[in-house]
Amino acid sequence: MVLNPNSNKPIYVQIAEWLETEILSGNINSDEKIYSQYQLAEIFTINPATAAKGLNILVDQKILYKKRGLGMFVSENAKEMVLMKRKSETLQQMIEDLVSEAQRLAVSEAELIEMIKSVKKEEEGRL
């Protein structure tokens, strides 16, 4: 993963999202120790405080938990929490943006649904 310093998203948010993606993809599992702020800082060549801020977002959301003196670990239901979060926040926002753009372009609901079905079918063919 490469962080985008030109993105509208702060680096610490990109770090948190990257860790969420690692959890979703199964690269990091429940109760597994996660990277420390110093490891993340080295991996991404960023300030450790920035990395810590990204980790703390996930701690605040209960996706990660701290064990004093041992580090941070992935919560038992982290994958499910990330899935629900992404569905309710990220996907919802994308759908709202898509519907708004479709309205500006005078795309009917039926056309939009057909476009979504077509893209989904293409994606399923790639898997």
Automatic annotation (TrEMBL):
UniProt-recorded Gene Ontology molecular function terms: DNA binding; DNA-binding transcription factor activity
Keywords of the record: DNA-binding, Transcription, Transcription regulation
Record-linked InterPro entries: Tscrpt_reg_HTH_GntR, WH-like_DNA-bd_sf, WH_DNA-bd_sf
CDD domains, per the entry: WHTH_GntR
Taxonomic superkingdom: Bacteria
SUPFAM superfamilies: Winged helix' DNA-binding domain
Pfam families (alphabetical): GntR (PF00392)
Domain annotation HTH gntR-type: ranges: 9-77
Entry keyword annotation includes Repeat: no
PANTHER family: GNTR-FAMILY TRANSCRIPTIONAL REGULATOR, HTH-TYPE TRANSCRIPTIONAL REPRESSOR YTRA
Name of the protein in question: GntR family transcriptional regulator
Phylogenetic classification of the source organism: Bacteria, Bacillati, Bacillota, Bacilli, Bacillales
